[in-house]
Design a protein that fits this description.
The protein is of the alpha+beta class and 206 residues long. The chain has seven helices and eight strands; from the N terminus they run H-H-H-E-H-H-E-E-E-E-E-E-H-H-E. It has an eight-stranded antiparallel barrel with strand order 1-2-3-4-5-6-7-8, surrounded by four helices. 27% of the residues are buried.
């Protein structure tokens, strides 16, 4: 990004952003530090950290773009999207304290959602941060086959992100109250369709 674009991004931030609390700056710095270290190791840091049990915190939303001004302009929409996703996830049983994912060294994973445990295998490509989850067993998720997405460290947290359509399909499939999710999912789909290069998913902490 050249100097002119940096100044443009800073100007948009000055207009759009409310005052940031000290802990928000600390969180941002922590995130930047982990991102720098991860890039320096070609994604190896994420690969090492991935093997653990991660507890669900909140929905994950990420924009992939080189245009800082466009990203900032879309920030209000993505914030609204994250808020709406939190309610939808909770209806589906995906909430803090009752959802976790464990990645093991033998390339297997288990996803706990309420009283349900979904298992399978995973493959992580450190250079691209690509992750593929393949569900096993005879359950309804078997028809998903392989779910392709991305895994990123965000400070000390882990983001698992997929295409908007794939993430929302997964939420609907595992939903404990699937019938009540339809209208909410339609609203989120409408919002997501207005943003290019948008990925949705889940954010976890150890």
């Amino acid at each position: 990004m050249n100097r002119k674009r940096i100044w443009c991004a800073a100007a948009v931030l000055a207009v759009l952003c409310v005052p940031v609390r000290a802990q928000d700056w600390q969180s941002a710095l922590k995130s930047v530090a982990s991102n720098v270290a991860d890039k320096a190791t070609g994604g190896a840091l994420t690969q090492l950290a991935l093997v653990a049990t991660w507890n669900y915190m909140q929905p994950g939303v990420k924009l992939e773009s080189d245009n800082a001004v466009a990203d900032l302009a879309a920030s209000a929409t993505t914030a609204s999207l994250q808020s709406k996703l939190a309610g939808i996830y909770e209806k589906a049983g995906i909430k803090s304290g009752s959802c976790s994912v464990t990645f093991s060294k033998d390339s297997t994973f288990s996803l706990v959602i309420g009283s349900r445990t979904l298992k399978g295998t995973y493959a992580f490509e450190s250079a691209t941060h690509g992750i593929t989850l393949t569900f096993s067993g005879s359950g309804e998720l078997r028809k998903f086959g392989a779910m392709h997405g991305f895994a990123y460290l965000n400070g000390t947290d882990l983001q698992l992100l997929f295409s908007a359509a794939k993430a929302l399909s997964l939420v609907k499939q595992v939903g404990e109250k699937a019938a009540s999710l339809n209208s909410s999912l339609a609203t989120v789909n409408s919002l997501a369709s207005k943003i290019d290069n948008l990925y949705l998913g889940f954010e976890f902490a150890k």
